[in-house]
Amino acid sequence: xxxxxxxxRTLSCPACGGTLEVRAAGWSVNLACRYCGSILxxxxxxxQIIERHKRAAGQFSLPLGARGSLFDTEWxxxxxxxxxxxxxxxxxxxxxxxxxxxxxxxxxEGEWQFGTPLLDRPEAKGDSVVWRSxxxxxxxxxxxxxxxxxxxxxxxxxxxGDSARARSYVARDFMLSCEEAGGEINWTxxxxxxxxxxxxxxxxxxxxMSRERQSALYARGGNTRKPDDLGRICLLxxxxxxxxxxxxxxxxxPVERVSGTVTAPFGSAREGQKIGAITxxxxxxxxxxxxxxxxxxxxxxxxxxxxxxxxxxxxxxGYGLSEHYSGSDSDGAWTEGSRSASTLFxxxxxxxxxxxxxxxxxxxxxxxxxxxxxxxxTPEAIEIRIDARTGSLPWGNWWTLVILLSIYPCVxxxxxxxxxxx
Length: 422
Prior knowledge:
elongated, 8-stranded antiparallel β-barrel, Jelly Rolls
C-alpha cells in the first residue's frame, strides 16, 4: 500500500533534518517537529519553517504515533500541546482516525477526558447553556488558555503563545468547553474517562497523582472517583476548633468575680456608682461585665463602665446597653431585645481595678421626664445587677475561626451536591 493510499506523507525538517511523517496528509496545516520543536507549514508541497526552535517541546504521556482504542474506535496520536491557565497546566492530545476524523484527549494530573468537537452549538441561557435539551451550568469564570510547547501536526495554524478565552459548563455526566480566539468560537464535549482507561488503551504507565490534586479535581467536578478527603478535612476542622478552644481556656487564666447593684434613673444619669474591686492576675486577661434587670419593658438602660487602676489611676472605659421592648401588630404579639447585656474588655493589663458604673434609663416611644414640680419627689429608677469577672473567653473570635475553617468543606459539599443534581 502506498503512502498516498494510507493518507501519510514523509518529509524532512528544514530546521534539523529529522525525518517526519504527516499522518493526516491533506488535512493537517501545521506540523511541530518532534526532534527540535520547530513549527512547519505542511499545507503546501514545499515545506516552510514558520517558527524555529532548538529543542523539542515538553514531555508528554502519549508519544506521537501511539495507537489505542476508545469507544470502539482506533485512534492515533498525531499532535500534542501543553496549555496553561491562570492556575493550572494541562496537556491536550489530538487524535485522528481517517474514517471518523479528529478527537481530543485532555490530561490533567493523571485524569483524562475524551473530547468531541461540536458541530451544533449550544444555546446560551443566562449563565448556563442548553445543548440537545440538556442544561449545562457554567463552572468557572472565563479565563485565558495559553498554548505552550507542542509537537506533531494540527488541522489549524497554531504556534506557541497563542491564547484563547475559555469557559466550561458542567452537567451530570460530562462538560462542555468553549474557546474563543480570533473571532472563532469552538465547542467541545468532554467526557471523563475512568481510572486506567487511557493507560490500558494506549499501553502507558499512569503517573502518580497527589492526594491534594485528587481533592481539587473532584471539587471541580472533573474526577470520576470520590476521594475520602472530605471526611478528613471535616475532622481536621473539628480538631482545630477544639484545640483553639482549649488554648483559649488555658490563656484565659484564673477567675475572679465582683458584683453589685446600681440604679438607673429616668431623665438623668447616676454617675460613679462603685461596684467593687477586681484583680487581673495574668499579664493580661479578658474581663466581662454583665448587666441584668428585671420587670422592665419598653425601656432601655445606658451603662458606662470604668475600670480604674488603683496603682496608676488610669481607666479603661466600656459601654453597655440593656433593653427590652414588646407590643402587638397585625402579625400578633412580639418582643425584642434582652434585659441582660454583656460587655467584654479585651486584654486588660495585670493589676487591681475598681469598677464604676454610670447608669441612665429611657422609655419608649416617649422618654420619661422627671416631675420638676415637687423637689422632694424621688425620680423613677430601674435597678440593675452588675456582675464582673476575669478569665472570660472571647467567644466571638472563636466562632469567627470556626466559620473560616468551615468555608472550604462547605464549598466541597455544595459542589458535590450541585454536580450530582445538575
